Amino acid sequence: MKQYTTIDKTDWGDGPWQHEPDKIVWIDPTTDLDCMIHRGNSGALCGYVGVSADHPDYGRSAYELEDIDIHGGLSFADRCDDEAREDYGICHVPEPGRTHDVWWLGFDCAHAFDVMPKLESQPYFPLPREFRAIYRDVAYVIGEVTSLALQLANRKEQL
Fold first, then answer.
1. How many separate domains does the chain show?
2. Which has more pLDDT, 25 or 132?
3. Against a cut of 0.70, is the pTM above it?
């Protein structure tokens, strides 16, 4: 599991985000799928699973996969951002023998009732406190990514 901490969060106030990595990349041991957590522009964490070209959902949009049960639904589907740095961005450096060509399917934790620490540190942030009650931490997002990986692995077997 590779972890990167690259974002300056000093203005975000106290919270678990201050001690969490901003990007984590690993291979799920159950499904053998590439997995990633990346901190989005709002400061909330986002989770991703990469499927290879032989997977039936490779190349499909997030909106075509509405039957996936994940926090807030799928909100991302794309290849690696080849302009991204290894330590920041939605891309990865594959382990030896693994393909770089994966289609990332992902979700974000920036929905109603989710705490978005970077946005909420801004004085103009418009949502009242009752609409931002829960911070989805790394442990939560790892659980959701693991669930997404298992769902995608099962879809490959079923289709």
1. 1
2. 25
3. yes
